[in-house]
Amino acid sequence: MSPATVAFAAACRPDAGRRVPVRERWRAARRRLGEIVVQLVEEPEIKSLSWHLPAGRRSPAAARHLTRMSLERWDMGGLSDTAELLVSELTTNAVCHAQGPIRLTLIAQENLLRCEVEDTGHVLPRVDSVKDVDDFDEGGRGLHILDIMACCWGGTRTPTGKVMWFELSEGDDDAA
Predict the structure, then answer these.
(1) What's the domain count of the chain?
(2) Per-residue confidence (pLDDT) for residue 89, from 0 to 100
(3) Of 21, 25, 30, 54, whose CA is between 20 and 30 Å from 74?
(4) Which DSSP string do the residues of 12-60 spell out, in sequence order?
(5) Does 15 score more than 90 pLDDT?
(6) What does the pLDDT look like over 95-106, one tens digit per residue?
(7) Are 8 and 62 part of one and the same domain?
(8) Which H or E run includes 97?
């Protein structure tokens, strides 16, 4: 029998020699089960920061700076170089391909970092749609870099545009 089943059975059992109303037994069971669940499931701390950035050429630099400062504060400095590069890539794409404000969101949970860049563009890029780039082409490499360096990445449409995101893990050698 699991600890939760034993606790539930004990909570529902009437006290010796006297009848306990059903409602009281359920209350006691919920209290005891709640304590067990709290002891068994401890949620990790989630850290999150978000900023609005103008759709201007200085936004990628601001996004890199905000990313580095946040990761240092969260003791995740080992991800800084990769996170800055990929945040800069997504922010630059937002500046070049969308009109309107940009929102940078960083979310950290245990050793996982998720970075999101929201913009007003409605087209979701795909890595397989990017043409082979020539040595002299100015663009076309960003999504390939994202695909190689991030644990995972993707995009989601929103009512006002899209969110492009990626994740990095501190313990993942493939992501760096």
Answers:
(1) 2
(2) 94
(3) 54
(4) HSPPTTS---HHHHHHHHHHHHHHHHHHH--PPPEEEEEEEE-SSTTHH
(5) no
(6) 988 888 999 999
(7) no
(8) helix 80-97
